[in-house]
Amino acid sequence: MANHPTQPVHAQAAIADIEARIDTLTTAVKQGQPGLEQVIKALKDESEPVQRAAYLLLRNRTELEVRKALQDYNPYRFFKCIRTMGGHSSRIYSVAISPNGWLVASGSNDNTIKLWNLETGEELGILSGHSDWVDSVAFSPDGRFLASGSGDATLKLWTIDPENSPQIATLKQTFTGHSRWVTSVTFSPDSQLLVSGSKDNTIKLWNIESGEEVRTLEGHYDWVYSVAFSPNGKQLVSGGDSTVKLWNLDTGEELQTFAGHRDWVYSVAFSPDGQRIASGSEDGTIKLWSVSDHQAIATLTGHTAGVNAVTFSLEGRLLISASADDTVKLWNVETGKIPEDSALKILRGHGEWVSSLAIAPDGRRLISGSGDRTLKVWSLETGEELRILGGDAEWVDSVVFTPDGQMVGSGSGADTAKWNLHSGEELRSLSGISSWVEDIAVSPDGSRVASGSEDGLVKIWSLNSGVLAILLSGHTEGVWSVTFSPDSKLLASGSGDETIKIWNLQTGKEIRTLRGHSYRVDAVAIHPKLPILASGSADETIKLWNLNTGVEISTLEGHSDAVSSVLFSPDGQSLASSSMDGTIKLWNWNTSEELSTLEGHADAVNSISFSPTGKTIASGCEDGTIKLWNLSTYEERGTLSAHSEPVNSVAFSRDGYQLVSGSADSNLKIWHLRTGKEFRMFSGHSNWVNAVAFSPSTSHFIVSGSADGTVKVWGVE
């Protein structure tokens, strides 16, 4: 880190100390028992970055003292939504407006960019070519180019046709060099350079004409989320990890590190006069920094969730922020308050995260892009919502105005639609519809995720990349339950069409269909050692099947309402079932004998989960509670007052020390079972969370499926 003569000594020392301690831990973990003890001790360090580094170094180790230390440690404060696997629904992550103000571009996780005419609302084109989410889009100040950055680790440069021919933009060049997601792109004021920030912790400068990499800036100790040029083009500001950095572009020297945020910095922006920098963070705050004296000017508080985007109005009087609390806020940057003398206070209307902002060149209109799959156009003079663009079935990740401000572009998912910018009318839908995710399952080998949805489809995704690997179709009604075989080679799915289908995941073909239930099949489970499948149905019965032949073995009767869940115990000796009748039953599946009925819930039981030892069952109830049951005595061990709405799904972690719950209140919660206390709450879904699962091979990933049509993977990377 460069030592600038005017850099505050305390800030320099704080950052240097954190980086030094993290380096020390990285070395210590390789130096035997004393070093291991040092890393374990760092789990209680006062610095969260140091704690996180220690956790990442320890999480895969098997030593007894490490496992014991991690039992009481809360890593879930660091969990982020690593990816959302669309196909059922989608979001907008970035928007940009062309210099002439007539073109808008938006980028999405369907891997595409959309271009729109701002005045007419006409969709002018879709740009495809990225193989992963489009996280960022930007127009060059001269209006000749559009740049896009993607999760495929590339940047693409598109030439904008000034004559507005049928092909409004064509691919000029693809830039490769980053090793991970490109999260942010921006042009220099003279349109000669392109800058990119990446999750590989670096910033790269590119010559637009030659396509060559000019320089790589290194200094962030974690992901770089945002980059922005100063108005004179001589400096660059970057935000990432929990810091903001200022760079000299002529020399590549780091001039200053601004420390003060308590979590990731998602967005940075220079004021029009170049004298101030604004930064928005996951900690819910916006900070204003002085470029000249390198001091914090103000901290703006008011958002109730992370701040995803910040931008200044053209004259610099207002600062605008977009947040995961679904709002856009306008601040008087002279007072540090929301203006009290006009209608421009809080802009509400989005139903999900607001992830991106762009101001039209006339300074009168603002566009916001959101996880609710829409772009909203606002009047900055009145605060009125002028119109809505979007409604795609995939997230739109990014939107931008053309320099002339007339067109809007958006990037989105499987569904592609055209919209009239004035009326908001849908002109054409090209593919797919969004659909509820009813159930999910993680393969025992930890490599894949299966989702079943109301549209009757089963989708198999790569857990690591989020790429859709297999699409299984054949059910004639919604798929309510999915489960993998122990060797991860087969999948069983239960449906509203009263059937169970067995699929070969190596060929993607259906092996056989099991028929016998007289109503919807709500639950399926495969024995951990034998080729036996159990199914639970709304016909109040449980059936056992030979997985190899498809022959029905037996029917278990005893519930007085729909069977919501079935599970084999980890040792395979018993079977558990839950029901809308409010009970949980334990069975000897081999003899069809009912071993016990667990009673205590005041309403329907929606989900059950065995602990890894098989000694405890957790049950999630319609009344919002979770109960833990001792299977040695068949007695209730305790009740967690978990959610404000029904608990739809529960799952134990691999080590059995944590439990995750998903609820109709749209949230996931992590519970520490030794204390009964809530570890962490995740609130990224916009509708019921119907299914949750820990990765069986590691507790470092949590997967959730929701009625908002998305499957989310949560964890630390």
UniProtKB/TrEMBL annotation:
Q: Where are the WD repeats?
A: 85-126, 127-168, 175-216, 217-257, 258-299, 300-341, 347-388, 430-466, 472-513, 514-555, 556-597, 598-639, 640-681, 682-717
Question: By its UniProt entry, which SUPFAM superfamilies does this protein fall under?
Answer: WD40 repeat-like (SSF50978), YVTN repeat-like/Quinoprotein amine dehydrogenase (SSF50969)
Q: Tell me which InterPro entries the record gives.
A: Beta-prop_EML-like_2nd (IPR055442), Quino_amine_DH_bsu (IPR011044), WD40/YVTN_repeat-like_dom_sf (IPR015943), WD40_PAC1 (IPR020472), WD40_repeat_CS (IPR019775), WD40_repeat_dom_sf (IPR036322), WD40_rpt (IPR001680), WDR55/POC1 (IPR050505)
* Family annotation (Gene3D superfamilies): YVTN repeat-like/Quinoprotein amine dehydrogenase
Q: Which SMART domains match?
A: WD40
What Pfam family is a match, any one?
WD40
Where does the EML-like second beta-propeller domain start and stop, copy by copy?
523-678
Q: Which domain of life is it from?
A: Bacteria
**CDD domains attached to this UniProt entry:** WD40
Q: Alphabetically list the UniProt keywords.
A: Repeat, WD repeat
Q: What is this protein called?
A: EML-like second beta-propeller domain-containing protein
